Automatic annotation (TrEMBL):
Keyword set, alphabetical order: Glycoprotein, Oxidoreductase, Peroxidase, Secreted
SMART domains with a match to the protein in the record: DoH (SM00664)
Classification lineage: Eukaryota, Fungi, Fungi incertae sedis, Mucoromycota, Glomeromycotina
UniProt name for this protein: Peroxidase-domain-containing protein
PANTHER family: CHORION PEROXIDASE, OXIDASE/PEROXIDASE
Cellular component, GO annotation: extracellular region
Source organism superkingdom: Eukaryota
GO biological process, alphabetically ordered: response to oxidative stress
Pfam families on file: An_peroxidase, DOMON
A molecular function (GO) term: heme binding
Length: 356
């Protein structure tokens, strides 16, 4: 299952769900059961649920989906119009939000439900009486992958990322004397740099699936996560790259926030190959006004990326924390391998929950 790509979350169902055998030797259609159950229990129609979730009523099938085939099928199933669409069918037919498996009504429902579950759980790990701050940090940075590996015999070939299929292609990258120092050991994301008295110059290579993705680098976090860090984030859209300055929120477990004042020297020079590999060159001041300086000493340095989507969302396991001296090119893990993996993965749990 860890290597199997999931089916899309939409109104088109796998054939296996239409022929589920039960203990009484009858065969059932799971979607039909869900629709019947919603009728039996008086679940409101789609537009009622949509309004309850804080969104305006859909005026036509176009407001549910931009896909013509979905609009046409909804019109056939509900000939009396948009007001008769049932909730389950409607939410499963919605166009997805960027970077999400869900449309807007389903996403709002999931956020509400999991928020209620969290807030009503007296044993929730973030409650101050449950754990110390160090213990909460460990929990936040434990991922599902960590938990699985603890409970299996051989994890040698276990993939690093459980949550997305990585691009099949890897970077065809070679050494570059103009950027002599390399950071990162991924096959899809490589950072190189050089330094002078004023700037550090970066060359980033990112292997995307289809010309869309994002990459980020974070400077000097206060902990093993993102707290207190400043970021440069690149958004790749159809091979075009935009760069921006960002900073972490107070807790460091929500998406970085774009700075109100941007560094005007942060201008990317970029290109994309036939294999959808993007190369980006840019520079950062060593001592930018109002931002963290890069000095002759060790600095915690975060690298993260998403090769599949330019929606700025959770990076999953595509993250690593280094300790770098940009002046003498000394590069190492910010902590021991086991602890680094442990903290990185718990950091993932916290971000997976809060990035909805």
């Amino acid at each position: 299952m860890i290597l199997q790509q999931q089916e899309e979350v939409d109104v088109f169902l796998a054939d296996a769900t239409k022929k589920i055998a039960n203990f009484d030797d009858h065969v059932y259609d799971l979607a039909a059961f869900d629709i019947i159950r919603s009728r039996d229990r008086g679940i409101p129609l789609y537009n009622v649920v949509r309004q309850y979730s804080g969104f305006p009523k859909a005026q036509s099938f176009v407001d549910i989906s931009n896909k013509t085939i979905i609009q046409e099928n909804l019109a056939k199933v509900y000939p009396n119009g948009i007001e008769t669409v049932e909730a389950w069918v409607g939410v499963m037919s919605e166009d997805h939000l960027d970077g999400s498996n869900f449309g807007m009504v389903m996403n709002a429902s999931m956020v509400t439900q999991y928020t209620y579950l969290r807030d009503s759980d007296k044993f929730w790990y973030e409650k101050p009486e449950m754990f110390t701050s160090d213990e909460r940090l460990i929990i936040r940075n434990t991922t599902l992958r960590d938990i699985i590996i603890r409970n299996i015999y051989n994890s040698v070939n276990f993939p690093q990322n459980l949550w997305s299929i990585q691009p099949k292609m890897t970077l065809n990258s070679s050494e570059d004397n103009s950027y002599p120092t390399r950071i990162g050991s991924w096959s899809q994301y490589i950072v190189r740099y050089r330094i002078d008295l004023t700037y550090v110059y970066f060359k980033v290579e990112l292997q995307t699936s289809d010309g869309n993705g994002w990459f980020g680098m974070g400077f000097d976090p206060d902990d093993e996560g993102m707290k207190g860090a400043e970021f440069i984030i690149g958004i790749v859209t159809n091979g075009n790259v935009t760069l921006g300055n960002y900073h972490a929120d107070v807790d460091g477990y929500h998406p970085p926030i774009r700075d109100a004042i941007q560094d005007l020297t942060l201008v990317p020079k970029f290109s994309m190959s036939d294999t959808k590999a993007v190369t980006v060159e840019f520079k950062r001041l060593l001592h930018p006004p109002g931002k963290k300086p890069i000095t002759d000493g060790d600095m915690k340095y975060i690298l993260a990326y998403n090769p599949n989507s330019n929606a700025f969302s959770y990076h999953q396991n595509n993250r690593f924390l280094y300790r770098v001296n940009f002046y003498n090119s000394e590069i190492g893990s910010a902590s021991s391998t086991d602890h680094q993996r442990f903290v990185r993965l718990i950091h993932g749990c916290g971000m997976f929950i809060t990035w909805w």
